[in-house]
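Researcher: I need the complex structure. Ligand is LLP. Inputs:
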Amino acid sequence: MLSDNIRREPGGSLYFADHSISALAKRYGTPLYLMDENRIRENCRMYLRSFAENFGDNALPLYASKAASFKQIYRIMAQEGMGVDAVSPGEIHTAVAAGFPPERIFYHGDGKTEADIRFALDRGVGTFVVDNETELLRLEHEAARRGIRQKILLRVTPGIDPHSYEAVNTGTVDVKFGRPIETGQALAFCRLALNCGSLELRGLHCHVGSQVFDEDVFERTIDIMVGFMALLKRDLGYETKELNVGGGYGVRYLESDRDIDIPARIRIVAERLRLRCAEAGLPLPFFLMEPGRSIVADAGMTVYTVVSVKKIPGYKQYVTVDGGMGDNPRYCLYHAAYTVLHAGRTGEETMFDLVGRCCESGDILQPGIPLPGDTAPGELVAVCTTGAYNYAMASNYNRFGRPPVIMLTPEGSYCAVRRETISDVSALDF
Ligand code: LLP
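Model: Output:
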Protein backbone atom coordinates (compact mmCIF):
# COMPACT_ATOMS: atom_id res chain seq x y z
CA MET A 1 0.00 0.00 0.00
CA LEU A 2 1.02 3.59 -0.65
CA SER A 3 1.11 4.46 3.05
CA ASP A 4 1.18 2.26 6.14
CA ASN A 5 -2.07 3.75 7.46
CA ILE A 6 -3.96 2.21 4.50
CA ARG A 7 -4.77 -1.48 4.40
CA ARG A 8 -7.13 -3.87 2.65
CA GLU A 9 -8.77 -6.79 4.44
CA PRO A 10 -8.52 -10.18 2.73
CA GLY A 11 -12.19 -9.79 1.75
CA GLY A 12 -11.33 -6.55 -0.06
CA SER A 13 -12.64 -3.86 2.32
CA LEU A 14 -10.40 -0.83 2.66
CA TYR A 15 -9.27 0.51 6.03
CA PHE A 16 -7.69 3.87 6.81
CA ALA A 17 -6.04 4.46 10.20
CA ASP A 18 -7.65 1.17 11.25
CA HIS A 19 -11.15 2.41 10.46
CA SER A 20 -13.43 0.73 7.94
CA ILE A 21 -14.15 3.09 5.06
CA SER A 22 -17.61 1.67 4.47
CA ALA A 23 -18.54 2.14 8.15
CA LEU A 24 -17.33 5.75 8.06
CA ALA A 25 -19.22 6.43 4.83
CA LYS A 26 -22.35 4.97 6.38
CA ARG A 27 -21.99 7.10 9.50
CA TYR A 28 -20.98 10.44 7.93
CA GLY A 29 -22.11 10.18 4.31
CA THR A 30 -20.00 11.02 1.25
CA PRO A 31 -18.04 12.82 -0.08
CA LEU A 32 -15.91 12.74 3.01
CA TYR A 33 -12.48 14.01 4.01
CA LEU A 34 -10.78 11.73 6.53
CA MET A 35 -7.78 12.77 8.64
CA ASP A 36 -5.61 10.34 10.60
CA GLU A 37 -4.90 12.36 13.74
CA ASN A 38 -2.06 10.13 14.94
CA ARG A 39 -0.31 10.48 11.61
CA ILE A 40 -0.46 14.28 11.86
CA ARG A 41 1.03 14.05 15.37
CA GLU A 42 3.71 11.57 14.26
CA ASN A 43 4.73 13.86 11.41
CA CYS A 44 5.00 16.83 13.81
CA ARG A 45 7.06 14.75 16.24
CA MET A 46 9.37 13.64 13.45
CA TYR A 47 10.18 17.32 12.74
CA LEU A 48 10.36 18.26 16.43
CA ARG A 49 12.70 15.36 17.20
CA SER A 50 15.00 16.07 14.23
CA PHE A 51 15.14 19.74 15.11
CA ALA A 52 15.99 18.96 18.74
CA GLU A 53 18.65 16.40 17.74
CA ASN A 54 20.34 18.77 15.33
CA PHE A 55 19.84 22.21 16.87
CA GLY A 56 18.92 21.62 20.53
CA ASP A 57 16.42 24.31 21.45
CA ASN A 58 17.82 26.71 18.87
CA ALA A 59 15.14 25.78 16.30
CA LEU A 60 11.39 25.46 15.77
CA PRO A 61 9.35 23.79 13.03
CA LEU A 62 6.31 25.78 11.94
CA TYR A 63 3.30 24.08 10.43
CA ALA A 64 2.39 25.86 7.16
CA SER A 65 -1.30 25.98 7.86
CA LYS A 66 -2.28 26.87 4.28
CA ALA A 67 -2.02 23.09 3.70
CA ALA A 68 -5.06 22.44 5.92
CA SER A 69 -6.58 25.13 8.10
CA PHE A 70 -9.36 24.49 10.61
CA LYS A 71 -9.55 24.92 14.37
CA GLN A 72 -8.73 21.37 15.40
CA ILE A 73 -5.50 21.34 13.41
CA TYR A 74 -4.27 24.40 15.34
CA ARG A 75 -5.19 22.71 18.64
CA ILE A 76 -3.10 19.71 17.60
CA MET A 77 -0.21 22.02 16.65
CA ALA A 78 -0.44 23.81 20.01
CA GLN A 79 -0.45 20.47 21.87
CA GLU A 80 2.54 19.21 19.90
CA GLY A 81 4.56 22.40 20.51
CA MET A 82 4.79 23.46 16.87
CA GLY A 83 4.80 27.03 15.59
CA VAL A 84 2.43 28.04 12.81
CA ASP A 85 2.75 29.87 9.50
CA ALA A 86 -0.42 31.77 8.58
CA VAL A 87 -1.09 33.77 5.43
CA SER A 88 -4.35 35.59 6.00
CA PRO A 89 -6.59 37.12 8.66
CA GLY A 90 -8.75 34.03 8.22
CA GLU A 91 -5.95 31.65 9.13
CA ILE A 92 -4.83 33.89 12.02
CA HIS A 93 -8.38 34.14 13.32
CA THR A 94 -8.90 30.38 13.10
CA ALA A 95 -5.64 29.71 14.96
CA VAL A 96 -6.29 32.24 17.71
CA ALA A 97 -9.93 31.20 18.09
CA ALA A 98 -8.69 27.64 18.59
CA GLY A 99 -6.41 28.82 21.39
CA PHE A 100 -3.16 28.72 19.44
CA PRO A 101 -0.60 31.07 21.09
CA PRO A 102 -0.34 34.12 18.77
CA GLU A 103 3.32 34.71 19.63
CA ARG A 104 4.12 31.44 17.83
CA ILE A 105 2.40 32.60 14.61
CA PHE A 106 4.52 33.75 11.66
CA TYR A 107 2.44 35.91 9.36
CA HIS A 108 3.24 35.61 5.64
CA GLY A 109 1.93 37.00 2.39
CA ASP A 110 2.88 39.39 -0.38
CA GLY A 111 -0.32 41.38 -0.32
CA LYS A 112 -1.05 42.33 3.28
CA THR A 113 -3.36 45.32 3.32
CA GLU A 114 -3.39 47.97 6.04
CA ALA A 115 -6.48 46.29 7.48
CA ASP A 116 -4.69 42.91 7.49
CA ILE A 117 -1.70 44.41 9.30
CA ARG A 118 -3.91 46.01 11.94
CA PHE A 119 -5.85 42.77 12.38
CA ALA A 120 -2.65 40.76 12.95
CA LEU A 121 -1.23 43.35 15.37
CA ASP A 122 -4.52 43.38 17.29
CA ARG A 123 -4.23 39.59 17.70
CA GLY A 124 -0.62 39.83 18.91
CA VAL A 125 0.94 37.85 16.06
CA GLY A 126 4.54 37.07 17.03
CA THR A 127 6.46 37.63 13.81
CA PHE A 128 5.61 39.25 10.51
CA VAL A 129 7.41 37.82 7.50
CA VAL A 130 7.60 41.04 5.52
CA ASP A 131 7.49 40.61 1.76
CA ASN A 132 8.19 44.08 0.37
CA GLU A 133 8.98 47.72 1.17
CA THR A 134 5.37 48.90 1.03
CA GLU A 135 4.39 46.40 3.68
CA LEU A 136 7.49 47.24 5.70
CA LEU A 137 6.66 50.94 5.86
CA ARG A 138 2.98 50.29 6.57
CA LEU A 139 3.93 48.00 9.42
CA GLU A 140 6.51 50.45 10.76
CA HIS A 141 3.88 53.20 10.74
CA GLU A 142 1.29 51.07 12.52
CA ALA A 143 3.75 49.68 15.10
CA ALA A 144 5.01 53.21 15.85
CA ARG A 145 1.44 54.45 16.29
CA ARG A 146 0.87 51.66 18.83
CA GLY A 147 4.18 52.27 20.57
CA ILE A 148 5.33 48.66 20.12
CA ARG A 149 8.39 47.03 18.59
CA GLN A 150 7.22 44.33 16.19
CA LYS A 151 9.43 41.34 15.36
CA ILE A 152 9.94 40.76 11.66
CA LEU A 153 11.73 38.53 9.20
CA LEU A 154 12.36 39.72 5.66
CA ARG A 155 11.48 37.48 2.76
CA VAL A 156 14.25 37.26 0.20
CA THR A 157 14.55 35.18 -2.96
CA PRO A 158 17.71 33.13 -3.20
CA GLY A 159 17.50 32.43 -6.95
CA ILE A 160 17.03 28.67 -6.85
CA ASP A 161 14.91 26.52 -9.13
CA PRO A 162 13.41 23.73 -7.01
CA HIS A 163 12.51 21.63 -10.10
CA SER A 164 8.95 21.26 -8.94
CA TYR A 165 5.95 22.52 -10.92
CA GLU A 166 5.64 26.13 -12.05
CA ALA A 167 2.73 27.23 -9.83
CA VAL A 168 4.63 26.39 -6.64
CA ASN A 169 8.09 27.57 -7.66
CA THR A 170 8.94 30.45 -5.34
CA GLY A 171 12.72 30.44 -5.26
CA THR A 172 13.85 31.89 -8.58
CA VAL A 173 14.83 35.55 -8.98
CA ASP A 174 11.73 36.48 -11.01
CA VAL A 175 8.92 35.25 -8.71
CA LYS A 176 6.35 37.57 -7.12
CA PHE A 177 7.50 36.91 -3.55
CA GLY A 178 10.16 38.70 -1.56
CA ARG A 179 13.19 40.62 -2.73
CA PRO A 180 15.92 38.99 -4.80
CA ILE A 181 19.44 38.66 -3.45
CA GLU A 182 21.02 38.62 -6.92
CA THR A 183 19.82 42.09 -7.97
CA GLY A 184 20.91 43.80 -4.74
CA GLN A 185 17.27 44.51 -3.85
CA ALA A 186 17.37 42.22 -0.81
CA LEU A 187 20.29 44.16 0.63
CA ALA A 188 18.46 47.48 0.14
CA PHE A 189 15.37 45.92 1.75
CA CYS A 190 17.41 44.97 4.84
CA ARG A 191 18.97 48.41 5.03
CA LEU A 192 15.51 49.98 5.01
CA ALA A 193 14.26 47.57 7.69
CA LEU A 194 17.18 48.42 9.97
CA ASN A 195 16.14 52.06 9.78
CA CYS A 196 12.63 51.24 11.04
CA GLY A 197 12.70 52.06 14.75
CA SER A 198 9.47 50.23 15.59
CA LEU A 199 10.51 47.01 13.91
CA GLU A 200 12.97 44.46 15.26
CA LEU A 201 14.68 42.70 12.37
CA ARG A 202 15.10 39.13 13.65
CA GLY A 203 16.37 37.68 10.41
CA LEU A 204 15.58 36.27 7.00
CA HIS A 205 13.02 34.05 5.33
CA CYS A 206 13.01 32.24 2.02
CA HIS A 207 10.90 29.48 0.52
CA VAL A 208 11.98 27.89 -2.73
CA GLY A 209 9.06 25.65 -3.64
CA SER A 210 6.74 22.83 -2.77
CA GLN A 211 6.69 19.10 -3.51
CA VAL A 212 10.49 19.28 -3.75
CA PHE A 213 12.46 16.04 -4.16
CA ASP A 214 15.90 17.17 -5.28
CA GLU A 215 18.45 16.27 -2.64
CA ASP A 216 20.45 19.44 -2.78
CA VAL A 217 17.80 22.16 -2.95
CA PHE A 218 18.00 23.04 0.76
CA GLU A 219 21.80 22.77 0.84
CA ARG A 220 22.09 25.24 -2.02
CA THR A 221 19.57 27.45 -0.26
CA ILE A 222 21.71 27.42 2.90
CA ASP A 223 24.83 28.29 0.87
CA ILE A 224 23.14 31.32 -0.67
CA MET A 225 21.40 32.46 2.50
CA VAL A 226 24.54 32.24 4.63
CA GLY A 227 26.44 34.05 1.89
CA PHE A 228 23.84 36.79 2.12
CA MET A 229 24.03 36.81 5.93
CA ALA A 230 27.80 37.37 5.60
CA LEU A 231 27.13 40.27 3.22
CA LEU A 232 24.70 41.81 5.73
CA LYS A 233 27.36 41.53 8.42
CA ARG A 234 30.02 43.09 6.21
CA ASP A 235 27.98 45.88 4.60
CA LEU A 236 25.46 46.72 7.32
CA GLY A 237 27.10 45.35 10.46
CA TYR A 238 23.94 43.31 10.97
CA GLU A 239 24.01 39.80 12.47
CA THR A 240 21.10 37.54 11.45
CA LYS A 241 19.47 35.96 14.50
CA GLU A 242 16.85 33.79 12.80
CA LEU A 243 16.89 31.93 9.51
CA ASN A 244 13.69 30.45 8.10
CA VAL A 245 14.17 28.33 4.96
CA GLY A 246 10.47 27.66 4.31
CA GLY A 247 8.71 24.40 3.56
CA GLY A 248 8.62 22.13 0.58
CA TYR A 249 9.58 18.50 1.21
CA GLY A 250 7.72 16.32 -1.28
CA VAL A 251 5.38 13.46 -0.37
CA ARG A 252 4.39 10.25 -2.14
CA TYR A 253 1.17 10.39 -4.12
CA LEU A 254 1.96 7.28 -6.19
CA GLU A 255 3.67 3.99 -5.34
CA SER A 256 6.34 4.98 -7.86
CA ASP A 257 7.16 8.28 -6.06
CA ARG A 258 10.34 8.42 -4.03
CA ASP A 259 10.20 8.45 -0.26
CA ILE A 260 12.14 11.28 1.35
CA ASP A 261 13.94 10.53 4.59
CA ILE A 262 13.20 13.90 6.18
CA PRO A 263 15.27 13.42 9.38
CA ALA A 264 18.28 12.50 7.23
CA ARG A 265 17.72 15.58 5.07
CA ILE A 266 17.44 17.82 8.13
CA ARG A 267 20.70 16.41 9.48
CA ILE A 268 22.45 17.32 6.21
CA VAL A 269 20.92 20.81 6.24
CA ALA A 270 22.05 21.34 9.85
CA GLU A 271 25.59 20.23 9.05
CA ARG A 272 25.70 22.50 6.04
CA LEU A 273 24.43 25.45 8.07
CA ARG A 274 27.02 24.87 10.80
CA LEU A 275 29.80 24.57 8.22
CA ARG A 276 28.85 27.68 6.24
CA CYS A 277 28.34 29.78 9.37
CA ALA A 278 31.71 28.67 10.76
CA GLU A 279 33.41 29.52 7.45
CA ALA A 280 31.79 32.95 7.45
CA GLY A 281 32.52 33.56 11.12
CA LEU A 282 28.82 33.93 11.90
CA PRO A 283 26.98 32.57 14.94
CA LEU A 284 24.43 29.84 14.22
CA PRO A 285 21.02 31.49 13.75
CA PHE A 286 17.80 30.17 15.32
CA PHE A 287 16.60 27.77 12.62
CA LEU A 288 13.05 27.56 11.27
CA MET A 289 11.32 25.51 8.60
CA GLU A 290 7.68 25.58 7.50
CA PRO A 291 6.49 22.16 6.38
CA GLY A 292 2.85 21.96 5.32
CA ARG A 293 2.33 19.09 2.90
CA SER A 294 4.69 16.68 4.69
CA ILE A 295 2.76 17.18 7.95
CA VAL A 296 -0.76 16.51 6.68
CA ALA A 297 -0.77 14.97 3.18
CA ASP A 298 -0.49 11.29 4.11
CA ALA A 299 -2.89 11.84 7.02
CA GLY A 300 -5.70 12.47 4.54
CA MET A 301 -8.02 10.41 2.36
CA THR A 302 -11.18 11.41 0.48
CA VAL A 303 -14.06 8.97 0.12
CA TYR A 304 -16.68 9.22 -2.63
CA THR A 305 -19.71 7.24 -3.73
CA VAL A 306 -19.83 6.22 -7.37
CA VAL A 307 -22.85 7.91 -8.95
CA SER A 308 -22.62 6.61 -12.51
CA VAL A 309 -20.37 4.70 -14.88
CA LYS A 310 -20.01 5.41 -18.59
CA LYS A 311 -18.26 3.10 -21.04
CA ILE A 312 -17.69 4.30 -24.61
CA PRO A 313 -16.61 1.25 -26.64
CA GLY A 314 -13.31 1.85 -28.37
CA TYR A 315 -12.79 5.11 -26.45
CA LYS A 316 -12.75 5.43 -22.71
CA GLN A 317 -14.57 4.74 -19.50
CA TYR A 318 -15.67 7.12 -16.79
CA VAL A 319 -16.51 6.69 -13.14
CA THR A 320 -18.45 9.72 -11.90
CA VAL A 321 -18.47 10.34 -8.15
CA ASP A 322 -20.41 12.61 -5.81
CA GLY A 323 -17.51 15.08 -5.46
CA GLY A 324 -14.96 16.54 -7.85
CA MET A 325 -12.95 19.66 -8.56
CA GLY A 326 -14.85 21.49 -5.81
CA ASP A 327 -13.28 19.32 -3.10
CA ASN A 328 -10.03 18.58 -4.94
CA PRO A 329 -8.98 21.02 -7.68
CA ARG A 330 -5.37 19.79 -7.76
CA TYR A 331 -5.56 17.69 -10.92
CA CYS A 332 -7.32 20.55 -12.73
CA LEU A 333 -4.75 23.07 -11.54
CA TYR A 334 -1.49 21.15 -11.59
CA HIS A 335 -2.22 17.79 -13.24
CA ALA A 336 -1.41 16.42 -9.80
CA ALA A 337 -1.22 12.63 -9.57
CA TYR A 338 -3.21 10.57 -7.04
CA THR A 339 -3.65 6.95 -6.13
CA VAL A 340 -7.30 5.87 -6.33
CA LEU A 341 -8.61 2.71 -4.67
CA HIS A 342 -11.92 0.91 -4.75
CA ALA A 343 -12.94 0.94 -1.10
CA GLY A 344 -14.98 -2.26 -1.05
CA ARG A 345 -13.29 -4.93 -3.13
CA THR A 346 -10.69 -5.93 -5.66
CA GLY A 347 -11.45 -7.42 -9.07
CA GLU A 348 -10.13 -7.52 -12.60
CA GLU A 349 -9.14 -3.97 -13.35
CA THR A 350 -9.63 -1.76 -16.36
CA MET A 351 -8.79 1.90 -16.84
CA PHE A 352 -11.22 4.65 -15.93
CA ASP A 353 -11.13 8.41 -15.67
CA LEU A 354 -12.34 9.38 -12.22
CA VAL A 355 -14.50 12.46 -12.74
CA GLY A 356 -16.67 14.72 -10.63
CA ARG A 357 -20.19 16.07 -10.88
CA CYS A 358 -19.36 19.65 -11.78
CA CYS A 359 -20.80 20.89 -15.02
CA GLU A 360 -17.63 20.97 -17.08
CA SER A 361 -15.57 18.36 -18.88
CA GLY A 362 -12.46 19.54 -17.09
CA ASP A 363 -13.81 18.28 -13.77
CA ILE A 364 -11.36 15.40 -13.57
CA LEU A 365 -10.11 14.05 -10.26
CA GLN A 366 -7.68 11.64 -11.89
CA PRO A 367 -7.46 10.27 -15.44
CA GLY A 368 -6.43 6.73 -16.36
CA ILE A 369 -6.72 4.93 -13.07
CA PRO A 370 -7.23 1.18 -12.66
CA LEU A 371 -10.45 0.09 -10.91
CA PRO A 372 -12.40 -3.19 -11.03
CA GLY A 373 -14.00 -3.31 -14.49
CA ASP A 374 -17.45 -3.89 -13.00
CA THR A 375 -17.26 -0.92 -10.61
CA ALA A 376 -20.86 0.13 -10.14
CA PRO A 377 -22.99 3.00 -8.83
CA GLY A 378 -23.36 2.95 -5.06
CA GLU A 379 -19.85 1.60 -4.46
CA LEU A 380 -17.17 3.61 -2.67
CA VAL A 381 -13.85 4.83 -4.01
CA ALA A 382 -11.06 6.48 -2.05
CA VAL A 383 -8.48 9.01 -3.21
CA CYS A 384 -5.33 8.74 -1.10
CA THR A 385 -2.97 11.41 0.24
CA THR A 386 -5.50 14.23 0.16
CA GLY A 387 -4.63 15.76 3.55
CA ALA A 388 -2.77 18.74 2.09
CA TYR A 389 -4.25 21.43 -0.15
CA ASN A 390 -7.60 19.68 -0.65
CA TYR A 391 -10.00 20.92 2.03
CA ALA A 392 -7.87 24.09 2.08
CA MET A 393 -8.46 24.73 -1.61
CA ALA A 394 -12.04 23.50 -1.83
CA SER A 395 -14.71 25.70 -3.41
CA ASN A 396 -18.47 25.83 -3.77
CA TYR A 397 -18.35 25.72 -7.56
CA ASN A 398 -21.78 24.78 -8.91
CA ARG A 399 -23.01 25.45 -5.37
CA PHE A 400 -22.08 22.08 -4.01
CA GLY A 401 -21.36 22.16 -0.29
CA ARG A 402 -17.90 21.20 0.91
CA PRO A 403 -17.46 17.79 2.58
CA PRO A 404 -16.91 17.48 6.32
CA VAL A 405 -13.50 16.79 7.83
CA ILE A 406 -13.61 13.69 10.03
CA MET A 407 -10.72 12.99 12.37
CA LEU A 408 -9.77 9.38 13.02
CA THR A 409 -8.12 8.26 16.26
CA PRO A 410 -7.44 4.81 17.70
CA GLU A 411 -10.43 5.40 20.01
CA GLY A 412 -12.92 6.44 17.36
CA SER A 413 -13.80 9.27 15.01
CA TYR A 414 -15.12 12.79 15.38
CA CYS A 415 -16.14 15.68 13.22
CA ALA A 416 -13.66 18.59 13.02
CA VAL A 417 -15.51 20.48 10.28
CA ARG A 418 -19.16 19.72 9.57
CA ARG A 419 -20.62 19.18 6.14
CA GLU A 420 -21.77 22.33 4.36
CA THR A 421 -25.48 22.25 3.67
CA ILE A 422 -27.14 23.89 0.70
CA SER A 423 -28.47 26.55 3.04
CA ASP A 424 -24.88 27.25 4.16
CA VAL A 425 -23.99 27.68 0.52
CA SER A 426 -26.67 30.31 -0.08
CA ALA A 427 -26.44 31.87 3.40
CA LEU A 428 -24.66 35.05 2.26
CA ASP A 429 -27.10 35.90 -0.53
CA PHE A 430 -29.59 38.78 -0.11
N1 LLP B 1 6.16 28.39 3.50
C1 LLP B 1 5.75 29.18 2.51
C2 LLP B 1 6.15 30.58 2.50
C3 LLP B 1 4.96 28.67 1.48
O1 LLP B 1 4.59 29.46 0.49
C4 LLP B 1 4.58 27.31 1.51
C5 LLP B 1 3.74 26.75 0.46
C6 LLP B 1 5.00 26.52 2.58
C7 LLP B 1 5.79 27.09 3.56
C8 LLP B 1 4.63 25.07 2.72
O2 LLP B 1 5.15 24.28 1.70
P1 LLP B 1 4.92 22.70 1.74
O3 LLP B 1 5.75 22.12 2.86
O4 LLP B 1 3.47 22.46 1.95
O5 LLP B 1 5.38 22.25 0.41
N2 LLP B 1 -1.51 24.55 -3.61
C9 LLP B 1 -0.27 23.88 -3.99
C10 LLP B 1 0.82 24.11 -3.00
C11 LLP B 1 1.12 25.55 -2.78
C12 LLP B 1 2.23 25.75 -1.82
C13 LLP B 1 2.31 27.19 -1.45
N3 LLP B 1 3.27 27.48 -0.48
C14 LLP B 1 -0.56 22.39 -4.17
O6 LLP B 1 -1.69 21.98 -3.97
O7 LLP B 1 0.35 21.62 -4.52
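Model: Summary of the prediction. The longest helix spans residues 217-236.
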